[in-house]
Design a protein that fits this description.
The protein is α+β, with helices and mostly antiparallel strands. About 15% of the residues lie in helices and about 35% in strands. Strand 12 and strand 13 form a beta hairpin. The radius of gyration is 22 Å and the shape is globular. The protein starts with 8 loop residues before the first helix and ends with a strand.
């Protein structure tokens, strides 16, 4: 009992885990010059803002800009994994062109961001700030997660509420979703599903277990649903960190094909000659089944080809 408040043992563990993790969680602020930001505001969506004489763009009041003419247009979260300023976050948070990025640490210090790498497959980015002796979070192992296991999400919810904490469980494993990463659409696979609340702003923050180890990076939420949120398994980011430390960049083996797995149902629907393999197809009219200048293209593969074996093993 503390000051008249009674904590159960479970509460004490959650409180202790959060206190341990918070110092290493950061906010990532995205800023653009006022003129560049105005171009990104669709006039029809912001009827209350003043318009340019030709009414083709909004005019943001200069009062919202700082002394350099910069205005905050968004933000997210991240977490420190190296005492020398190495930070993990989401790729979509730092994808804006002509934008500046600033990290705000838990103690209120602000640092300009150096972007080290963006993962071409997962929604993961590695950034760095010039600081030393920083608090860090340890990385866990997402492959050991169990359904119903308690997890905690931490981050800068809505870009306003720093150090927002939400508690939940692992609701599903190895989930696949199609995420909107304007203007593109990204297929994301192998995700952790959780009912710990994730909102715009605390994406990029850590999803931790009850020992305080990071098991995922908060990434996406299903619009219109309740308690259906997703995190990227930390194992993918661990591999990225290893690449950065060893090669100075992320390296990925690439074949360069988009495909669907063939089974008996697909065979019958598409009148194929086999009931196994990987059928090369594009996912949308704007896509290509074969990535340009990829090993698959150089090898002469074409859309509607079926890859049957890999190292003499059936696909």
């Amino acid at each position: 009992q503390t000051r008249g408040i009674i904590f159960c043992s479970g509460d004490k563990k959650v409180v202790a885990t959060i206190a341990k993790a918070l110092p290493a969680v950061v906010s990532v602020v995205v800023s653009k010059h006022l003129k560049d930001a105005e171009k990104d505001f669709p006039p029809d969506l912001y009827p209350l803002l003043p318009k340019s004489p030709d009414k083709k763009k909004v005019e943001i009041p200069k009062i919202f800009a700082d002394e350099r003419g910069m205005i905050e247009i968004g933000g997210g979260s991240g977490f420190i994994v190296g005492t020398d300023g190495l930070i993990l976050t989401n790729r979509h948070i730092i994808s804006e062109e002509k934008a500046e990025y600033t990290v705000i640490t838990n103690d209120g210090r602000r640092f300009p961001v150096e972007i080290l790498s963006r993962d071409p497959i997962y929604d993961v980015a590695i950034i760095k700030i010039q600081a030393t002796k920083l608090p860090t979070l340890s990385l866990g192992d997402a492959s050991r997660l169990k359904l119903g296991q308690s997890v905690i999400a931490i981050g800068n919810a809505l870009g306003v509420f720093r150090n927002t904490v939400s508690l939940g469980i692992v609701s599903g494993l190895s989930r696949s979703i199609t995420a909107q990463d304007a203007p593109a659409v990204q297929e994301m696979r192998g995700l952790i599903q959780t009912d710990a609340a994730i909102n715009p702003g605390n994406s990029g923050g850590p999803l931790i277990d009850m020992t305080g180890k990071v098991i995922g990076i908060n990434a996406a939420v299903v619009a219109g649903a309740q308690g259906i949120n997703f995190a990227i398994p930390i194992n993918a980011a661990r591999r990225d960190l290893d690449d950065i430390k060893k090669f100075g960049r992320i390296r990925r083996p690439l074949l360069g094909v988009r495909y669907i797995s063939v089974d008996e149902t697909i065979q019958k629907k598409m009148n194929l000659s086999v009931d196994y393999g990987a059928l090369i197809v594009k996912e949308s009219p704007e896509d290509h089944g074969i990535a340009e200048n990829s090993p698959a293209a150089r090898a002469g593969l074409r859309e509607k080809d079926i890859l049957l074996t890999l190292n003499d093993n059936r696909i």
